[in-house]
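for the recovery benchmark. tokens below, seq after
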């Protein structure tokens, strides 16, 4: 039940978002917590919440929590992150930062990861690196490319492909692998909905599934 308490605490802090510039909170309900093509909830639903602060100079810091199900006593994940983001005069966006994945039920699973990304219009590419991915004491990198293409009537086309490699990936999955997804998004009022098909090319693994997600960010009406 501690995972529910931590989400509830983030919920209480959401009220601060309405009163403080630069503070926001995003709440997400998804039919499956998908992480690089791999389910983190045994294909069961997840409730997720974040609390974020963004400064005018591009610096941001935040925390994100979700329930998980690894078939062990670990029930939830809390990610802490910070970084800098900005955009050039030509519209090229950039983002660099650090995220720390924490599992309060078993701190031996904790590990850090750094990332950097470039984005332009509807396309984004991101590179991640960890020297201790999945608490394996081995390194990994992940190349993430995605596109969100606007469509008429508040719809959008969602496409993603990722590549995981490194000694840690060999330990966990036997070899490097690719994950990909294709779906559609829809904006209605203060809510973002998405429906996507997800799969990987991991040999002898049934990873294909359809995931539905609904999310909203507080405070509502914030530009």
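predicted aa per position
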């Amino acid at each position: 039940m501690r995972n529910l308490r931590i989400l509830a605490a983030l919920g209480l802090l959401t009220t601060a978002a309405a009163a403080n510039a630069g503070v926001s909170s995003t709440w997400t309900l998804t039919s499956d917590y998908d992480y690089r093509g791999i389910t983190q909830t045994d294909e069961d639903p997840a409730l997720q919440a974040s609390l974020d602060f963004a400064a005018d100079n591009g610096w941001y810091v935040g925390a994100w929590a979700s329930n998980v199900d690894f078939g062990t006593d670990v029930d939830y994940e809390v990610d802490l992150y910070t970084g800098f983001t900005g955009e050039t005069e030509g519209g090229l966006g950039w983002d660099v930062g650090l995220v720390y994945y924490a599992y309060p039920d078993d701190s031996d699973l904790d590990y850090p990861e750094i990332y950097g990304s470039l984005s332009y219009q509807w396309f984004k590419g991101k590179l991640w690196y960890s020297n201790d991915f999945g608490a394996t004491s081995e390194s990994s990198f992940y190349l993430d490319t995605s596109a969100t293409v606007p469509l008429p009537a508040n719809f959008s086309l969602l496409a993603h492909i990722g590549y995981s490699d490194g000694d840690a990936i060999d330990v966990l999955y036997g070899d490097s692998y690719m994950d990909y997804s294709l779906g559609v998004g829809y904006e209605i009022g203060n809510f973002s909905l998405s429906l996507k098909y997800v799969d990987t090319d991991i040999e002898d693994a049934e990873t294909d599934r359809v995931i539905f997600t609904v999310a909203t960010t507080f405070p509502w009406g914030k530009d």
